[in-house]
Amino acid sequence: TTQSFPANRGNVTAVSSSPYPIGAPRWKRVVETTRAYRALSRLLGDVNDIDILWRGTTDYRYLHRVLRRHGMRLPVVFQFHEHDPDYFHLCRTADHVVVPEENRAWLTRVSAGLSYTPSVLPNTPIHHPRRVDPSAIDTQLTQHRESGKRIVMYQGGMDFQRRCIPELIQAIGLCDTDTVLAMMPARPLADSEREHIASVVKEAGVASRTLILPSRVAPTHLDIVGQADVGIGLYRPTSINQTHCAPNRLYEFTGFGIPVVLPNFPGIRQIGDKYGCIELCDPQSPASIANAIESFARQGRRECATESAHSFFESEGNYLQHLENLITKLVEED
């Protein structure tokens, strides 16, 4: 984002180019937080050059300590990624809150007790290649496709409590035998996790039609995502954060013209009613998931869905345009 943001609209300075080490040992998280703290302190040395401080959940807590230390008052934007009640107090201390989905904006306003409605910045990739890098072609997927198979792909977390992984695996058993499920975990799986998934796959009788691909660091995972015929994004309805999800998978798949099966949740249904690249389902019903997958195999449907996917992404998937519009709005309001 720092490199791509239009120069005529302002300058973007990144405090840190490394991601927050989620899941890392506590000592490493402390080191990274301290490093960012010091970098931010140095950055604030010339406060006259700063119009907006844009912070995320994991690093927002120490921001106010830095501001107080420097005796400064700057507009602070809090990007509220997850609808987590533990962070509502941070929403109240920010000058403006940004969320990834429209319904969640209203929920955040009410739940956090805000006097305004947060802005929306969709969960679309900062940069989408739109075409698969030929050097990244997966041989397993290629072999299945050359034998006439259809690749249904899930990429993301493998937490059975939050994602409907067992239901998806069972759904493949109800699909045409030419359907192959490829799952790419968001992170490397532990042996116990891999064994658990293998047992579910075996019980569903789809071991010969299921692939567990190596995880890839974003955005390199997009080159694998782009090799699917149908994309999957299933969330278990266990929280507001889940039922009012803002699935980045929607944008990742449609950027390649790939239709997507998604849960019949409010925000997604609004998009599905407008674009034919989305098929909605009950995420906890294998039969419903299977019917949604099979709908894209009907004569003429896939071609229309592909065209619709491209149309959706062209209209809704330009992250930098969304960001530019939002920053312009915030600067004008300040």
- The spatial strand order of the largest sheet comes to 7-6-5-8-9-10
Main sheet characteristics: 6 strands, parallel
How many strands?
10
Whole-angstrom Rg: 21 Å
End-to-end CA span: 22 Å
Beta-strand content estimate: 5-15%
- Structural category is alpha/beta
Average pLDDT confidence is 87
Unreliable segments (pLDDT under 50, ≥5 consecutive)? 1-7
Helix content: 40-55%
Order of helices and strands: HEHHEHEHEHEHEHEHEHHEHEHHH
Tally of separate helices: 15
The 3D shape can be described as globular
Structure write-up:
By secondary structure, the chain is an alpha/beta fold. It contains 15 helices and ten strands. The strands form two sheets. Strands 7-6-5-8-9-10 form a six-stranded parallel sheet, with helices on both faces. The longest helix has 18 residues, at 26-43. Residues 1-7 have low confidence and may be disordered.
Q: Would you spell out the secondary-structure blueprint of this structure?
A:
Elements lengths: L25 H18 L9 E4 H4 L2 H8 L5 E4 L8 H6 L2 E4 L2 H10 L7 E2 L18 H8 L3 E7 L8 H10 L4 E7 L5 H14 L5 E3 L9 H4 L4 E3 L7 H4 L4 H7 L5 E4 L2 H7 L5 E4 L4 H10 L5 H16 L2 H15 L1
Parallel strand pairs: 1-2, 2-3, 3-4, 5-6, 5-8, 6-7, 8-9, 9-10
Helix pairs in contact: 7-8, 7-13
